[in-house]
Description:
Blueprint: E1 11-14, H1 21-51, H2 58-75, H3 78-86, E2 91-93, H4 94-127, H5 132-135, H6 138-164, E3 173-174, H7 181-185, H8 193-226, H9 231-260, H10 267-291, H11 294-312
Parallel strand pairs: 1-3
Antiparallel strand pairs: 1-2
Helix pairs in contact: 1-2, 1-3, 1-10, 1-11, 2-4, 2-10, 4-6, 4-8, 4-9, 6-8, 8-9, 9-10
Amino acid sequence: MEGVNWTSRKEFVLLGFSDYPKTEMLIFILCLIMYLVILMGNSIIIVLTILDCHLHTPMYFFLSNLSFLDICFTSFFVPKMLTNFLSESKTISFCGCMIQMYITLSMGATECVLLATMAYDRYVAICNPLRYPIIMNKRLCVQLVVTSWVIGFLDSAMETALIIGLPFCGKNIINHFACELLAILKLVCVDISLNEIILLIDSITFVFSPLLLIITSYIFILSAILRINSAEGRKKAFSTCSSHLTVVTVFYGTILFMYMKPRSKNSIADKFITLFYSLVTPMLNPIIYTLRNKEVNRAMRNVLKRLIFVRGL
């Protein structure tokens, strides 16, 4: 079939869950609820880290950046997805699709690096507690966060450039609810072996390298925790890492399952997996970090008391 440059067609059609109209409405309601929880939960963490001086630490600085990242990540595709669920046309322009893919890929790469940065922060806090304030100073924290964002956007720019230059053929229908990389590649009508090799190398570099750093950090952390004499001390040390470790497990678990599993013709399963790591994971992050976190709960109570006091005046 002859290749067609989609820039001449101007738009894609996002199929989404239109083959299952009843299920689509249920998914719309669930996604809307999850998106509102993401906005509220992550916004609360950002506000608390700004207003409460006890949370002005490297750990919560990184956490607030993770919350901001999750808000940006979901906001670049969820509103369009929800609109398409209620629309009959379900179209997105070629430029809009490429921008959406670029932003979501960059946010995903940034989160990988940021989670590795947070693991390094926990490593320094537990393995070098006396030097922690000196090592994790404000300047280094800002540099690490900026580096995470820059790496994410540069990595996404390369991946997006590889896609834009490819010819597409057949119908301009993406069998997905968003401009997802693997779904777009299915429309390509030329041999993409070289592109797949480059994308594989890129994935190893920007997904597995941070994961390797995280695993290495936690090996040293576990070793340091086991050397602590008191059971209370071990429990306290582990509690400072448990939230981050849970987030890493959920995030990387779904990403690795999605991109490393054998190719399947069951596109509906791929869509639900994508929904999980793109909506459920950002929703769980603030819940995981606040559910058993005494500092965040205390900060929330303090802020609420201040608001009540101000209103009372």
